[in-house]
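User: Structure please.
Assistant: Input sequence and predicted structure:
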Amino acid sequence: MLPTLTYLQFHLVFSLPLIAVLWRVAPRYTGVRRRRAAAGIAVLVAIAYAYTTPWIHHMIRRGAWSYAGGAVLVRALSIPLGEYLFFAIQTVAVALACHRLGFDPAYREGDFDRLPRAVGVAVGLALVPLGLWLVGVGDRFLYLGGLLAWVGPVFALQWGVGGGYLVRTSRVWLPATLLPAAYFWVTDRIAIGVGTWRISTEFTTGVAVFGLPIEEMAFFVAAGLMTVNGIVLFEWALDWRDRRSAVDDSVLGEPSDPANPTTRPVSDPIDDR
């Protein structure tokens, strides 16, 4: 049997090398695009900490997952330091993968169509009562139900803002979500196998793929999806703002300033896109 890895050793072996590789192959933006890409990642990391910490704290306190003796050196709010690091690591990894695959954040007519936005909001909001109902059905649905209830509000918000854009760019955000998730599935299964952490059989359905509970698989997909959608929508929203400002300036008769992206003509793309 392989020796148990501490959580920090897990990051040294699996997580940080992934970040290094993705950083090496990520596109080298300049100008406006570089600043917006960096700001988008920073904002998503901050949101990940603010939104995920209470949920992870609750799930750990309930016993949905636990850690091997000696695998955790420091905790805060019952959450291991390694788990806190994972919030940032997964967010950055998914964001870099998204940029490596490439996406166009330009606003297009139809991105605010009501139908995809309404459907996205309806699905997201429906996940909340569904998840809470599953939690109430029995302990074995705690992880799955809690996950659905956690994801639902973010899904509804993101699709409510840019559902039309997300439909139009699905060929980008789908692989950007699934490819990093597949990597984390493999490394998560290894960590479970060597005993770094343990997923409770009491609070999961018992359905697994190659020994990895489906709840864990769903978590990496859900967290990745929220990150990718957040990354692309952040830059898309800024582009929409720029175009709206350019239209407002043209209506007022103010000339476009090439040095200021907020006053460029509506048809001009962001430099260094």
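The CA atoms of residues 15 and 59 lie 22 Å apart.
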